[in-house]
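Sample intake sheet
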Amino acid sequence: MKLSNRTIVVTGGTSGIGLAFALNLLNRGNKVIVIGRNQATLDQATTKHKGLIGLQGDVSDANSVRDMAAIIRDRYPETSILFNSAGIMRAFELMDDTLDLERTTAEVATNLNGTIWMTEALLPQLARQDEAMIVTVSSGLSYVTSPLHPVYSATKAGVHMFTDALRIQLKKSGKNIHVMELVPPLVAETNLQSDVHSGSRVPNMSLDTLVKHGIQGMEHNKKRIVPGFSKFLRFAGKYFPDALANAMARG
């Protein structure tokens, strides 16, 4: 797929993986709309990085997703790429009786619901384009659970399964919409969860390297990009998932 002269929506586009891809795509001559829930953070990103277009919204809120989809449809009808990057990762103990139910499932709302809702909301618009693409961001931890982060791995496994189902359905529909899953390993620069990085023996990939792999995958319409340590996690998840999960629980 040609990655120039396109209009692209990036969720979670004010920091981390989302911002890194947004800037790369912006520099290729695209119109890039970054979505974030915090208006001040959006303003900071669009002021610092001239050319980015900010759109305030919360992917974990269905009404907000509907409103954003309507805005994108009206203002940017030519949108042809959706890059689902919004995500959170938290460490907590399930035996902590101070946790309420909503707090235990915050990652489900953002990582999984957000990906599904944004995709579903923009599908009619993407289907009207001559060629379109949907990118989802899962994780190497979709293959092997991280016991310290009891919900994160579950949501990313859900993103992986949803992406496969989406790809198959779209292929059957005859629509020219490419679907790519990006499976990042640990990328410490994102600061997604600080306790994963401090003292971690897990190999770390630079953000620039991840973007390079991802952009190449998008250009060649790859189904899935599994770079770096994620390849090992994919293998381990197939052959010795319990041993590795127990080792990860020890830190």
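Comment: The first strand starts at residue 7 and ends at 11. Confidence is low (pLDDT under 50) at residues 194-199.
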